[in-house]
Amino acid sequence: xxxxxxxxxxxxxxxxxxxxxxxxxxxxxxxxxxxxxxxxxxxxxxxxxxxxxxxxxxxxxxxxxxxxxxxxxxxxxxxxxxxxxxxxxxxxxxxxxxxxxxxxxxxxxxxxxxxxxxxxxxxxxxxxxxxxxxxxxxxxxxxxxxxxxxxxxxxxxxxxxxxxxxxxxxxxxxxxxxxxxxxxxxxxxxxxxxxxxxxxxxxxxxxxxxxxxxxxxxxxxxxxxxxxxxxxxxxxxxxxxxxxxxxxxxxxxxxxxxxxxxxxxxxx
Length: 268
Known about the structure:
The chain is mainly alpha-helical. It has helices at residues 2-23, 33-55, 65-84, 92-107, 123-157, 161-164, 171-199, 206-232, 237-267, and strands spanning 56-57, 60-62, 115-116. Helix 1 (2-23) runs antiparallel to helix 4 (92-107) and helix 5 crosses helix 9.
């Protein structure tokens, strides 16, 4: 019952934050930062309390697909919200808040039954997992920036005056932040793969081979974007699509098999 109440409260706060930002998305002054911060802070704190209660149970740690997804979502929401306090990120906020609302509501109907009695806190494993999670979150945020860049660029090319006088950030600022995030995320992903091969013996085991291969392919895609940007000045639609493909491959690597095993197969 407590989990359900916390989930619904989080949904309500995220939903209210989403509605508030969207209602003033193209306003010259933009959404009220005070209202946005209050609603998002309440949502983030409720989300955090939900995670603590959902993961740490009396039977052990529940590391099910949905709980790991909610944790990743929480890190992304927290990061984007923190960034928005310093840099314009108006277009990103309703996306992450809206997605968090949908994911939290969907979690009410998904199984939570992966109980681990104890977690071995080996330094190598913790290092690999931490860097991998951070790399994924940074690259997902970079993908959101790529979508924001494409949206603003497309509206400007159509000579849409609403976008010119809106609260949305300048295109060049978004582009600079986008490639900074891609560079940092690619570096972190490189460290994550390296730490996996150094500290883990199961990176190429049958049950993990597909994750490793997809992660390496995604790393190659992001590396191509970084090199193409540095040497050839890549930008625009093709670069955005490439970044989205890389994020999609990385999502499949991190969550694909677990989604099939824990959600689809259990349903059927």
